[in-house]
Amino acid sequence: MVELEVIGNVLVMKINRPEARNAVNADVAQGIEAGIDRLEESDDLWVGILTGTKEFFCAGADLKLINAGRAGEMMAPKGGFAGIVTRERRKPIIAAVEGPALAGGLEIALSCDMIVASQESRFGIPEVKRSLVAAAGGLFRLGRVLPKNVATELALTGDPIEADRAYDLGMVNRVSAPGFALEAALELAAQISANAPLAVQLSRELMIELKDCDDAAGIQRSNEALLGLMGSEDFGEGLTAFIEKRPPAWKGR
What are the residue ranges spanned by the domains of the chain? Predict the structure, then answer.
């Protein structure tokens, strides 16, 4: 249900359950969790991409499982719903979205660090149309990446927005031609992978940790992190490569 492919330093995780519009069941949740485990544990993998099929990113929870009282099957031990929405991790993950990302599908995308979407993709949390609540992060994460009134409209009407509007509002990082979201996400991943992996991971961690802190605390914590990074091999490599006017050879240590 989730196919893994390594491309350079990037791990691509593809939800492949087209007969159910890539809705989350036990296999999908466990497959995404296993993919993130592999990403986190491998020194040679620096960025993850989570994608779906060409027609659909993810329709969210499998409503047949919910109706049968089996919603727990969509939860994974480390990541909760779909193996990702509550997952603590170090490495960045990009959502590459083709087609609709709805309900839990949007919540999966919001659990990633960045979103790349094709022009034909749509984003929404239609749970209210089925007397449900978006319980996997949509009701608070949407308000972090969209203006408050827009996020409220999505939550209360259940109607989606198109990729171009999501891009204009800052929720989507890049918009691609239809069928090329994965390629665009790989280009973004390559830009990230050109940088020192430990510095990337630490920068991600600090952006999450320091989001709501005051300036003085942010400066102090950032300097502490920089001092810790100075003990790594890559720190010396970065300076040496700059002086020698050559591309750095990162080791991730």
Answer: 2-193, 197-244
Among 73, 98, 107, 120, the active-site one is: 107
Catalytic residue among 120, 127, 183, 224: 127
127 is catalytic: yes
For 2-193, the fitting CATH number among 3.10.310.50, 3.90.226.10, 3.30.230.10, 3.40.630.30 is 3.90.226.10
pTM for the structure as a whole: 0.96
CA 169 to each of CA 145, 162, 163: distance values in angstroms, whole numbers, following the listed order: 8, 11, 10
DSSP state of 100: E
pLDDT of the chain along its 253 residues, tens only? 999 999 999 999 999 999 999 999 999 999 999 999 999 999 999 999 999 999 999 999 998 998 999 999 999 999 999 999 999 999 999 999 999 999 999 999 999 999 999 999 999 999 999 999 999 999 999 999 999 999 999 999 999 999 999 999 999 999 999 999 999 999 999 999 999 999 999 999 999 999 999 999 999 999 999 999 998 999 998 989 999 999 999 988 8
d(CA 209, CA 123): 27
- CB-based burial, 83-93: b 16+ in 10 Å, e otherwise: bbbebebebbb
Question: Which tokens sit at 56?
Answer: 């659909």
